[in-house]
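Dear H.,

Thanks for agreeing to be a second pair of eyes. The structure we're designing against is below in token form, covering all 693 positions.
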């Protein structure tokens, strides 16, 4: 009789569940606020400030507030775009590193109140708070701890100022869902006219404990973001992706904001992390965080945005996507267009959940109770979960579609209110009567989405292979997402040959060189195009069978480097990796060596600026943060043409573009590293270029 009852229960049909206790939590676990925040999944950043008007990423703190003058600022437009994209909130840069305040703070003159915008009577924070309310979005604030404008930065007095400002923004604008503290702290700045370098002890200067207590008092439900949490941590890069192994627990007490080895050591979280501090992936829809007209054609492609989505939300993290507001005070049309494409595509990708209420079975069910049976993972209820008995770690759940079904996405969620548990899992599919392994991965956490090629599966099986305790799976979804045709990959070599590479086999590519949008009536790509002059290329790919097309991308190339040579001052050849047009090959040198070299452009040319592409490697060592740029017509007499910083290069190592005040004619150039990040005896340059246009 007993055996009979047991097998009846194992099928998950019926059982008295009251007798089976729920699993004990595996610490650490999220707070209610952290759970609510995690479930927001997707929200936006708005970078807008004085930098927007100086065309910089980090201004120095001395730009006149009179420069801030958006012609048609409309925070309702930002909120509408965010809402339509499915974002759940917006975080505004109330004050960035330059210290300029977007609200009329009574503690400084460096704010909108001394700008011509609305005759100094405007308040951007208020306008956004109202717009968010209207559109049902939550509002967050970014308040930079580093302040390059303030005379007291670096002294204890500044902390009072910082807290006064926090009090203003956390008191006067309604509920705040997230308070965002940047890890970039200390360095050179205006500092009330002192114009010097001020470093701070990142561990102790801000007395974070008391600042956190203040925030908790003013906004008890707000989530606090910084490298070290306490509620949410940085994901360690500004590309918008978390890692295949991403733990929400963190060894929080070993971390402090702005530590150099954070990315390498802590950004993935730890299996034995002591505190629940989940990851947030932040990225801008363009290369920079602030609006630069020169990036209007560099808004991320649909494929890039989709990858970001799957590699952040699909890897146990939230996604904070930045929309830079332009000088009009609007999100640019190109950015809105790309965002709309992402939203439409995601709608299609997740249109039809093939797992919902499918037939399921599990290798083991906690106490054989219906409360924990396998069907709980596909019932569309986030509060129920399939669980195994304590100590039963290795376990599987099978979904039976009953007929061969075309699938290519697998979404799985752990019941994290009781802790993140799974350490290793695999996905199998029954195809033509044979079980095959589709994927093998590590962590799941709040949400994990696997993408794979189309398969015709009759059943699929999730195998939990290792976990910190018995696995609790609250949700499984399965989809068939339509294939998208990606854009061609475009490269130009040192000789000036432009090649288009198809993103997949069998695709055709069309292009124009006259600035017009290409169609299938434009030139079809067969072989590399030669041009030593500047080129604007517009191109797309198309599947000739289905006629499905990619979006159109625009690539600008300046003069080619076919005549360029790189040598020591005495003419001894050096590696060409910094002028080979390949951003993936680095010239590895050091600060001392970097003084004795020159790049010969082959002829005298007039240039308006230069570009520096830092190493695209994973870690930050060897990036130039402060530069001097020299030019010469004879290779002997050199003139310093520009000097400055490559702002935010450590966190966001994208190509840096420096424009000169006026054009200069030169035959030789030299980029010198005044300061580098990390070890001073290492400099890595991926590419140096010039701007002639
Ligand atoms: C960085 C800052 O330095 C950038 O300017 C930007 O605000 C980004 C979100 O965080 O670390």
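And this is the sequence the design step returned. I haven't edited it by hand at all.
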């Amino acid at each position: 009789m007993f055996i009979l009852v047991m097998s009846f229960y194992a099928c998950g049909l019926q059982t008295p569940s009251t007798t089976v206790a729920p699993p004990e939590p595996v610490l650490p676990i999220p707070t209610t606020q952290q759970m609510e925040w995690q479930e927001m999944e997707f929200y936006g950043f708005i970078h807008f400030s004085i930098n927007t008007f100086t065309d910089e990423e980090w201004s120095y703190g001395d730009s006149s507030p009179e420069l801030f003058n958006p012609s048609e600022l409309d925070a309702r437009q930002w909120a509408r775009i965010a809402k339509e994209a499915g974002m759940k909130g917006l975080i505004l840069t109330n004050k960035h590193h330059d210290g300029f305040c977007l609200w009329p703070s009574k503690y400084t003159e460096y704010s909108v109140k001394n700008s011509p915008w609305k005759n100094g009577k405007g308040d951007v924070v208020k306008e956004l708070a109202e717009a968010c309310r209207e559109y049902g979005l939550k509002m967050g604030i970014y308040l930079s701890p580093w302040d390059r404008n303030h005379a007291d930065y670096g002294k204890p007095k500044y902390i009072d100022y910082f807290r006064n400002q926090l009090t203003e923004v956390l008191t006067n604008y309604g509920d705040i869902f997230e308070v965002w503290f940047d890890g970039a702290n200390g360095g050179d700045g205006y500092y009330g006219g002192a114009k010097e370098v001020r470093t701070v002890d990142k561990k102790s200067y801000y007395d974070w404990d008391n600042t956190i207590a203040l925030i908790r008092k003013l906004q008890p439900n707000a989530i606090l973001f910084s490298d070290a949490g306490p509620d949410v941590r940085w994901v360690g890069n500004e590309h918008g992706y978390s890692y295949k192994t991403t733990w929400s627990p963190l060894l929080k007490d070993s971390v402090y904001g702005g530590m150099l080895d954070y990315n390498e050591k802590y950004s993935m979280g730890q299996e034995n992390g002591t505190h629940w501090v989940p990851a947030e992936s932040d990225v801008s829809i363009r290369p920079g965080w602030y609006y630069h007209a020169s990036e209007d054609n560099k808004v991320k492609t649909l494929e890039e945005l989709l990858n970001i989505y799957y590699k952040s939300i699909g890897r146990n993290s939230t996604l904070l996507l930045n929309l830079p507001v332009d000088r009009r005070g609007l999100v640019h049309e190109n950015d809105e267009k790309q965002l709309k494409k992402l939203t439409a595509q995601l709608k299609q990708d997740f249109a039809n959940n093939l797992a919902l209420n499918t037939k399921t079975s599990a290798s083991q069910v906690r106490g054989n109770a219906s409360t924990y049976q396998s069907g709980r993972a596909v019932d569309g209820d986030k509060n129920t979960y399939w669980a195994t008995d304590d100590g039963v770690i290795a376990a599987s759940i099978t979904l039976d579609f009953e007929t061969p079904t075309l699938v290519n996405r697998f979404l799985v969620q752990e019941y994290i209110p009781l802790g993140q548990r799974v350490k290793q899992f695999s996905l199998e599919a029954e195809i033509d009567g044979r079980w095959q392994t589709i994927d093998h991965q590590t962590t799941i956490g709040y949400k994990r989405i696997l993408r794979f090629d189309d398969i015709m599966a009759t059943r699929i099986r999730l195998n939990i292979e290792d976990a910190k305790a018995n696995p609790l799976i609250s949700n499984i979804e399965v989809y068939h997402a339509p294939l998208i045709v990606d854009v061609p990959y475009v490269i130009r070599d040192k000789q000036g040959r432009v090649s288009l590479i198809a993103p997949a086999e069998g695709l055709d590519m069309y292009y124009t060189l006259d600035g017009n949008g290409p169609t299938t009536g434009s030139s079809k790509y067969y072989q590399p195009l030669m041009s030593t002059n500047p080129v604007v290329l517009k191109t797309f790919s198309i599947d000739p069978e289905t006629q499905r097309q990619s979006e159109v991308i625009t690539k600008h190339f300046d003069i080619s480097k076919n005549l360029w040579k790189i040598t020591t001052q005495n003419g001894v050849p050096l590696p060409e990796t910094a002028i080979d047009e390949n951003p993936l090959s680095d010239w590895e040198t050091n600060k001392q060596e970097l003084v004795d070299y020159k790049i010969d452009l082959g002829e005298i040319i007039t240039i308006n600026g230069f570009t520096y592409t830092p190493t695209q490697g994973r870690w930050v060592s060897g990036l130039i943060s402060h530069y001097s740029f020299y030019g010469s017509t004879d290779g002997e007499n050199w003139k310093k043409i520009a000097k400055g910083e490559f702002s935010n290069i450590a966190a966001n190592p994208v190509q840096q573009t420096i424009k000169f005040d006026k054009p200069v004619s030169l035959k030789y150039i030299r980029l010198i590293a005044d300061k580098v990040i990390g070890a001073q005896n290492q400099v890595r340059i991926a590419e140096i270029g010039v701007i002639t246009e």
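Two observations from my side: The chain has four domains: 32-329, 352-479, 489-557, 565-691. The chain is about 15% helix and 35% strand.

Warmly,
E.
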